[in-house]
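Lecture notes, unit on binding sites. The following record was shown on slide 14. It pairs a sequence with calcium ion.
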Amino acid sequence: MDNQTLLQYFHWYFNEDEKLWVKAANDAQFLKETGITGVWLPPAYKSNSGGTSVGYDPYDLFDLGEFDQKGTVETKYGSKTAYQEAIKVLQGKGIAVIADVVFNHKAGGDELEKVQVRAVNPDNRLEFTSDVFEIEAWTRFTFKGRGGKYSQFVWDHNCFSGIDWAHDLEETSIYSIQNDYGDGWEDVPSGELGNYDYLMFNDIEFRNPEVRQEMKNWGEWYYETCGMQGFRLDAVKHISTSFLNEWLDHMQERFDNRFFIVAENWNIEDVTELQRYLEITEGRMQLFDSMLHQNLYLASTQGNEYDLSQIFNDTLVQSHPLLSVTFVDNHDSQPLQSLESYVEFWFRPLAYALILLREQGIPCVFYPDLYGAKYKDKNEADEEVEVELIGLPMLAEMIGIRKNLAYGEQRDYFDHANCVGWTRAGIEEKAASGIAVLMSNGEAGVKVMEMGEANAGRQMKDVIGGRTEEITLDEKGSAEFYCNAGSVSVWTLLS
Ligand code: CA
């Protein structure tokens, strides 16, 4: 099988004239030619901020741009039929579609209810700062615009464990809801802030068996309606793992299918948190390697002070290569977003070489790196800022090298703080396969690396990093390879 390469086909500020679903369908042929084997599409359902929502404030999971709700029929990305069409066209080109699923919360309730709550210390969610009292809260979801089509389920305060807005008091706080199914917060993976069950909006109560059943019904309907190959699970560290395991098992059994599952469990400090999550989910899912993202980010900000030989230290892809989805940036880490930590431009080609051209991990490319992006938003000082992210000129070629040439035994040369490299020996089934990669975060680099005896006497040239010499492998398949200062060279075999 060819190497897999995913593409996150959106970013936070996507706002092009062509709606995303239409653009994805029109782009399918280009993506196939580029070597993309799977696309992660953004949340497709109607969200509270209607036609401008990125999709992470979900209102009605059964409304994929079909009903007049939240001021619009279509979502920001287009209509339900355009979504279904995009999926079909992408799949027709052999590209798998991964749908984004936000289970943790709902937003934009239709009706107020009187609910019993306790106030919570936002910095320690295990500390209740009041006795039980009553507030009015938007906890009832009737989805009037949908009129019971696909599901008649009405959500109420028994479906939520917490909320942050008391309508009658006009007060924002974190309120733990007293419902029929549990006392306080659910058991969730993250122990940050005491217990990190509550993230935002109406936090869903998965101890309620009717909620679990409704989510399974929805999962079945969603798959039968759209036929995606996998799911990207949002914010799993805030969600009961027993629910997610149950939902995934249900979907796999119901459809006798191996869905591709990748979860976002954002952590940039402690790889053991990610490793523990893989243990409790027992191989049901892959995780994005946020630890590697952080290393790439730090490397990009520290220049030649960063020790490149350590760049895979404490990453998930190092300890669990088969369960890691590697990435350089995403819609949360891009400039002006909540987890802003955007890898600096000079380092991005090196970062992409590290995720695309090695054996370990499944890489996920970020939309602006392929297409560029231009947008405005307020920064932390509340000033409007314009951002332009430039597409990487060498990225499409690097994805192609991954698809066609990055195969075979990997030999590592992570033996210098400022200059590291590796080779892939190639395989018989892939003509001309085999590469050598050398990168430097300091001065121009030179290093002897081996391609294996099978490649003895062959010539290689750099197709990415601007080196112009051709080099010849000796009788052992070794040679001196070169790269420019602050640059990456990718050497391929001349046939
Ligand atoms: Ca939660």
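Take-home: The first strand starts at residue 6 and ends at 8.
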